[in-house]
Amino acid sequence: MIAPCGMNCGVCYAHLRPRNKCPGCRAANHGKPKTRTKCPIKTCSIRRRNKADFCVGCDRLPCDRLQRLDRRYREKYSMSMIENLQKIAAEGVRSLIEEEGAKWVCAECGATLCVHKGYCLVCERPWR
To answer: Please, is 96 exposed, middle or buried when counting C-beta atoms within 10 Å of its C-beta (0-12, 13-18, 19+)?
Structure first.
């Protein structure tokens, strides 16, 4: 569930919403919104030419698109894709997945928190 850009798709509202759940950036494109299938970071020919699963394997890291996305997520959601990619480079994707699994859990009910909402989608407890 970790996208090429470093986003944890498991904490994205599109994945956590009750209906029409997005299966994540790495899943097949069938049934996904066009914004996910045509994402310029996901479909980046330079990253794919470098045979890199993540942007961290690209010699252009961080590109302008990733920097803009990271800046927006830092400001709006206090999350950084670039920090996630640095974690992948230093410790591997499994380490990031473990860290993210512990980070995005509601202290009240144990549900997965959504990065895009400031409250738990299950018990509605504010977490931000």
So the answer is: buried
For residue 33, what are the domain limits?
A: 9-103
Q: Give Cα 18 distance to the centre of its chain.
A: 19
Give how many domains the chain has, as a whole number: 1
Residue 63: is it exposed, middle or buried by C-beta count within 10 angstroms (0-12/13-18/19+)?
Answer: middle
pLDDT one-digit tens code per residue, 58-71: 888 889 999 999 99
Tell whether 84 is covered by a domain: yes
74: its two tokens: 């830092």
pLDDT of residue 111 exceeding 80: yes
User: Looking at the domain assignment, is residue 43 inside a domain?
Assistant: yes
